[in-house]
Amino acid sequence: MMRLTLRVLAARLYAHSTSSTSMAYSAKIGPSILSSDLSCLGSECVRMMECGADYLHLDVMDGHFVPNLTFGHPMVECLRKSVGQDPFFDMHMMVSRPEQWVKPMAAAGANQYTFHLEATTNPGNLIKEIRESGMKVGLAIKPGTTVEELAPWANQIDMALVMTVEPGFGGQKFMEDMMPKVSWLRSQFPSLDIEVDGGVGPDTIHKCAEAGANMIVSGSAVIGSDDPRSVIALLRTVVAEAIQKRSLDR
Q1: Engineered SS bond to 179: which of 4, 23, 143, 211, CB 3.0-4.6 Å?
Q2: How many CB atoms lie within 10 A of CB 68?
């Protein structure tokens, strides 16, 4: 009887360990700070973290890869000094030469360097360079890029970003037809962090969560809200419940 009980216990522990290994991702909400009041960016970042944000999403645009122009590593360095070491900076590099900015962004205090697959001819080398600079690696694809083009690199990156709008402008409508990309990535790479960015808020979060996204970028829906804390909590709850359901369905 004792031997049987121990065997059952061991089986349960093994099942728990394999489950937690294969489902090793959690719900994370990252406000897109480009939607905030840029005249007081430091205090806006602090406000978002105090409202429960898990990380901060910083959009870098060079006017070439996308038509818009935002900011570069000097401002990231100033932000890091202003907000301290705790906030996780996820750099979304919408730039035509992502290789050029790896070391400056690392030195400025960036934690994750997310580059676009469409912007480089040698993703493997760039991934290696980012890691050697001490940052996590994110790989993004535009709506027109197939998820199969990202797949060969999925085991070498920390996060895949599926754009749900065309990159470069805020306030666009959420593209629901991008959700099959998220679903496919989740099915093929169960422990990968999968981020969605563009038009995501309370009205669209359920679709993202059900598809398998766990890192949620939200701009105006969070920062423009009268109660960003409640919006962040809502987004996280929906994603966490979807993760839990997926775990139970396995």
Answers
A1: 211
A2: 15
